[in-house]
Amino acid sequence: MFQLFINNQWEDAASGKTFPTINPATGEVICQVAEADVADVDKAVKAARDAFRWGSPWRRMDASHRGLLINRLADAIERDSAYLAELETLDNGKPYAISYTVDLPTVVKCFRYYAGWADKWEGKTIPIDGDYFCYTRHEPIGVCGQIIPWNFPLLMQAWKIAPALATGNTVVMKVAEQTPLTALYVASLIKEVGFPEGVVNILQGMGPSAGAALARHMDVDKLAFTGSTEVGHLIQQASGSSNLKKVTLELGGKSPNIILSDANMEDAVEQAHFGLFFNQGQCCCAGSRTFVQADIYDEFVERSVERARRRVVGNPFDLKTEQGPQVDQEQFNKILGYISSGKREGAKLMCGGGVAADRGYFIQPTVFGDVQDNMTIAREEIFGPVMQIMKFKTLEEVVTRANDTKYGLAAAVFTKDIDKASYVSNGLHNVSSDGRDLPFENLHPCWRHFCFAELTRLLVETCTWWQFCRLWCTVFVAYMSSFP
């Protein structure tokens, strides 16, 4: 049984409760894990607060040594990457080939990137009237509560923990109940490489209990959350009703892929397929609304259906597998419900739409054509392998329709014309956009979506606060003779 990681110790839940974690490829129980509740959150927050107190080993540690510890953690993860990839695939269902060649190297790079930031913080001096010396400095914000999702468990853990540690904070992380195993293994590595007691605490538990307790805790200074927009609202409300803790949110998406008539057809089909079906469609930045210009619409749909039918679905440990199971029964049922909704509301089911295996949570790669903007599948985040293709005529039309959503996470434009790419990109109300098929690569280099927000100095700054210092000075003038 996997326990809770609090104050560098493994502990049972205070209530003694456990819950099973399930292999989504088979539906079988992998193991039991301790289920954190309010009392466990309180204990973990106290450990984090004690570790953050002035004079503690963590607060006395040089910034460069913090960076060294983070790099040591990256080394340990890299050393154990094959095992971690197996554990990620077992618990999450994503293909092992992706876990090992995409997720793990990215996790290691993330920790190394933030390790480099640890001793790079600089303040400013501010000229003011009078005999004063005024300066600013970055200070760690304190105890950082973090709630991560199940679609990229290791990667989301790295994105949250690394910047918080680099800036000298302490952490209480609530991992997704569907996928706790890799986060807990990383906890053992955190202890192994020498992080002081209480600096990182890892809890697995349910959102309405452990997650809510962390969000409303009066001794948590910042809360970072990645997950659904609906829960994001609850996180904000919990902050407002408790201690007004700082909140950073990375929420859902319904991102447009816009294919113009001059696009390279082969590239557009393959990239749109990847943008939707990657990670079983369980990506908040998935290009889940595919807009195709009218004069190439039929060919694009035909080729997209052919590509979806070739997609290899099956055992995630088979290196030929492109698509594994959905993460759990709830997500499996939710996606099938959206497929039924699409058929019921008049979208044309071009391929897929059913269950792909006798056991486990496998869904066939699904493509809908003739999708209208007011259909449920065009407006709500499906988070599954369901492609929706819509027809448009003019650039003005597609920009208006692409912006007609409550989401705004990512977008892509496929064209050879830089003027058209710039026009569409400038008109889209999204965090990032990507121009594809242009004569020069990466003129709008943002298909990496939200990682441009989370993997930059901008995120690191959210883990600190500015301290403004004003010192009254007694001025001493030193005279130095000139050198001959």
TrEMBL record:
GO terms for molecular function: aldehyde dehydrogenase (NAD+) activity. Residues 10-428 form the Aldehyde dehydrogenase domain. Pfam families: Aldedh. The active site is at E250. Keywords: NAD, Oxidoreductase. The keyword NAD applies. Its EC number is 1.2.1.3. SUPFAM superfamilies: ALDH-like (SSF53720). The keyword Ribonucleoprotein does not apply. Belongs to the aldehyde dehydrogenase family. PANTHER family: ALDEHYDE DEHYDROGENASE-RELATED. This is aldehyde dehydrogenase (NAD(+)). It comes from Cyclopterus lumpus (Lumpsucker).
